[in-house]
């Protein structure tokens, strides 16, 4: 592209400034709602909440309602604010997306040092929490303090009311009465963890991106919450078992009350949770991933019997996060029903495969995004996430992922493709979910970028490099100097560097200052063997296949807000009518109606509301936007098979698209990178440091960035496995 055709970085227009004001107001409103929700959690265990607010005010308003009954109180206090916050998040992200499309790429200067920069640096590098910044550690400490506050206040208010006389009325000893009270309160504290447990694993979340997070980077929060939740729920269950045994009422373990709490349902909830908890142990998860994967489907059993245990009115205290997760999960289910049009597969000599799919030209994603892939011929149930290596700004109608042959699933895929003798193969049935990733990136803020990878950890950096190549072709923005440090075990793994450039034959721009330092740790010198080649397999088109597209279309955030709002509204209307004309005549708001039947009925209505609104939105978007996509698939010709050379160790420089890449690459055999030296010698007032690879590598880089030896290093780990 000529320089005259490039877009220069311009200052924001008045329209962008107005959008920034609106976004600021939305974030402020979301913060107010969030702080209000936290305030309620702080207030809940106190006497002020029960005597001054709950009983005289809220229960008077909602408890006598003939439309909602007792559930109206918890629904409007806990679920409604969270849904409102999620809808506001959708509106914020829609406005942010509109601004991103205007291509204002001016670099925002990052000031050195300061409290804000220090808060983002890693504080803990090793330990059970993983790599944790000061901000994360403070928030974790505040959440633990909230749990301790709840437990302390519950016990402080309960124990004074328990006397030998009051215990004797229930044929209890004093310690038994206190044990029962403590067991109940431990369960109440555990509900606080459950209320937030599902929020970090909502892949299409409208809450996480508002604060700069993704579901992949938030997995550790889900793990922390899960450990705290199961510790509290296990203690809750054990205390009751000890209490029943001491009271000679062990038969209570098999009781299922019609209008009261069901103990059996609580025990099933605990057992299913314990199974999931046990399989999260690191050695079990790594060695028996399928056990870990399949056991986590027990979350359905866990939540169903939790609702049956506590009752539908109480469950809405902890249900908002799970409700948003349910919407996201059903949308993912709808997306996974389509077979995706697979263009080609590049088989590398390093036991690696690159799959290239067709995508809708309107689908835009950011670097470091991931795609979940399912291949029914290998496993109908298993879904695996892979980093996207392509750039939607560089390849408008293609999307690529790289799969390293490491586990059982990936080995079967590699064997399937590498054993094929044909360059043109029949179509391979593939389903996908995603892509998921950050809503924006800030690579241009830095003067230099240092990307450290180990093995297949290079894949997210390929997408970053391709995106920067696209920026050099379309704008005159100043591009950061790039240093890619990649460590491989064997020389054959260097073939992954061939994937940095797309198959279209694009060369590196002279505007892109990139240096690649490749380290082969297990081999001391290149082997004099026949040049290995990358083999490309093209797949025949299938008329039923679809390109990858956004499940909710180009205005996906607005559609998601509509789904959340309309499904909630439909649920409220149906529940209101059903309660008024069916349940209330029987119940009279006196808990006469069967609790299990009520819970199942309400859950069914909630599920139907989500399914109807989500399906309607998806069908409407398919009808509106997929006509062009279908033509895109049908008009594809299968190219002639080609080979790409990949012997980096002894390749002669030729006039090929890879020539520019070879010239900026240094190979180091039999040694490991001196990360400390490289990072500390990197010039620039702001150096973005990204690492993706083994745990020890991430810890080492994090330790260097947090050491204080260089104030210009800004650390970010984009490796999502523990």
Automatic annotation (TrEMBL):
Which UniProt keywords are listed? Electron transport, FAD, Flavoprotein, Heme, Ion transport, Iron, Membrane, Metal-binding, NAD, Oxidoreductase, Transmembrane, Transmembrane helix, Transport
What CDD domains is this protein classified in?
NOX_Duox_like_FAD_NADP
What's its EC? Answer: 1.16.1.7
Necessary cofactors: FAD
Q: Which reaction does it catalyse?
A: 2 a Fe(II)-siderophore + NAD(+) + H(+) = 2 a Fe(III)-siderophore + NADH
Give TM regions. Answer: 28-47, 67-93, 129-152, 182-202, 223-244, 264-284, 296-326, 555-579, 600-620
Q: Could you state a single Gene Ontology molecular function term?
A: ferric-chelate reductase (NADH) activity
One Pfam match: Ferric_reduct
- Biological process GO terms, please? monoatomic ion transport
A GO cellular component annotation here is: plasma membrane
Q: Which InterPro entries does the record associate with it? A: Cyt_b245_heavy_chain, FAD-bd_8, FAD-bd_FR_type, Fe3_Rdtase_TM_dom, Fe_red_NAD-bd_6, FNR_nucleotide-bd, RBOH/FRE, Riboflavin_synthase-like_b-brl
Annotated family:
Belongs to the ferric reductase (FRE) family.
Q: What's this protein's name?
A: ferric-chelate reductase (NADH)
Annotated organism of origin: Arabidopsis arenosa (Sand rock-cress)
Q: What is the lineage of its organism?
A: Eukaryota, Viridiplantae, Streptophyta, Embryophyta, Tracheophyta
């Amino acid at each position: 592209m000529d320089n005259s055709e490039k877009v220069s970085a311009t200052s924001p227009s008045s329209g962008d400034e107005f959008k920034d004001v609106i976004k600021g107001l939305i974030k402020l409103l979301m913060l107010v709602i969030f702080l209000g929700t936290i305030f309620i959690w702080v207030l809940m265990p106190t006497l002020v909440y029960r005597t001054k607010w709950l009983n005289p005010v809220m229960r008077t308003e909602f408890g006598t309602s003939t439309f909602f009954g007792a559930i109206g109180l918890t629904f409007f206090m806990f679920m409604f604010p969270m849904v409102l916050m999620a809808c506001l998040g959708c509106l914020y992200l829609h406005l942010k997306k509109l601004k991103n499309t205007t291509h204002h790429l001016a670099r925002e200067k990052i000031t050195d040092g300061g409290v804000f920069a220090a808060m983002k640096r890693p504080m803990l590098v090793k330990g059970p929490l993983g790599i944790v910044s000061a901000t994360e550690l403070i928030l974790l400490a505040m959440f633990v303090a909230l749990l301790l506050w709840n437990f302390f206040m519950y016990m402080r208010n309960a124990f004074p009311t328990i006397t030998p006389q009051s215990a004797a009325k229930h044929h209890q000893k004093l310690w038994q009465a206190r044990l029962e009270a403590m067991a109940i309160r431990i369960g109440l504290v555990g509900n606080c963890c459950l209320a937030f447990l599902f929020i970090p694993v909502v892949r299409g979340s409208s809450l996480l991106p508002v604060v700069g997070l993704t579901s992949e980077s938030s997995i550790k929060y889900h793990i922390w919450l899960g450990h705290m939740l199961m510790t509290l729920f296990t203690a809750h269950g054990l205390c009751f078992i000890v209490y029943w045994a001491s009271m000679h009422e062990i038969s209570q373990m098999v009781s299922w009350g019609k209008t009261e709490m069901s103990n059996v349902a609580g025990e099933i909830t605990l057992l299913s949770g314990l199974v999931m908890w046990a399989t999260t142990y690191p050695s079990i998860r790594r060695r028996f991933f399928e056990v870990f994967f399949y056991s986590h489907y027990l979350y359905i059993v866990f939540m169903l019997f939790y609702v049956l245990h506590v009752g539908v009115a109480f469950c809405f205290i902890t249900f908002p996060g799970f409700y948003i997760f349910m919407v996201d999960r059903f949308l993912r289910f709808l997306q996974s029903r389509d077979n995706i049009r697979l263009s080609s597969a590049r088989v590398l000599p390093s036991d690696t495969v690159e799959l290239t799919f067709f995508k809708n030209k309107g689908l835009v994603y950011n670097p470091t995004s991931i795609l979940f892939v399912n291949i029914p011929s290998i496993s109908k149930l298993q879904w695996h996430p892979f980093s996207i290596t392509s750039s939607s700004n560089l390849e408008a109608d293609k999307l690529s992922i790289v799969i390293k042959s490491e586990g059982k699933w990936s080995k079967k895929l590699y064997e399937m493709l590498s054993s094929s003798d044909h360059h043109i193969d029949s179509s391979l049935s593939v389903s996908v979910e995603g892509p998921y990733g950050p809503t924006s990136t800030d690579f241009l803020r830095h003067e230099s970028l240092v990307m450290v990878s180990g093995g297949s950890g290079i894949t997210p950096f390929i997408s970053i490099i391709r995106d920067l190549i696209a920026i050099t072709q379309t704008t005159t923005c100043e591009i950061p100097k790039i240093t890619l440090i990649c460590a491989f075990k064997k020389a054959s793994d260097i073939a992954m560097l061939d994937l940095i450039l797309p198959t279209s034959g694009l060369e590196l721009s002279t505007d892109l200052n990139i240096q690649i330092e490749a380290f082969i740790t297990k081999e001391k010198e290149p082997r004099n063997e026949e040049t290995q080649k990358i083999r490309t397999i093209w797949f025949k088109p299938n008329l039923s296949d679809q390109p990858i597209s956004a499940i909710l279309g180009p205005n996906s955030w607005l559609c998601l807000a509509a789904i959340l709002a309309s499904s909630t509204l439909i649920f409220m209307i149906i529940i209101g009518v059903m309660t008024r004309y069916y349940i209330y005549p029987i119940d009279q708001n006196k808990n006469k109606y069967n609790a299990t039947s009520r819970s199942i009925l309400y859950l069914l209505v909630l599920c139907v509301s989500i399914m109807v609104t989500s399906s309607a939105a998806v069908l409407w978007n398919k009808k509106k936007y997929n006509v062009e996509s279908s033509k895109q698939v049908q008009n594809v010709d299968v190219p002639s098979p080609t080979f790409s050379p990949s012997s980096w160790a002894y390749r002669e420089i030729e006039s090929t698209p890879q020539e520019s890449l070879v010239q900026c690459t240094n190979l180091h055999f039999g040694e490991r990178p001196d990360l400390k030296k490289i990072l500390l010698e990197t010039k620039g007032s702001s150096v973005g440091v990204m690492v993706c690879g083994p745990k020890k590598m991430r810890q080492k880089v994090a330790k260097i960035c947090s050491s204080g030896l260089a104030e210009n290093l800004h650390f970010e780990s984009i490796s999502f496995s523990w």
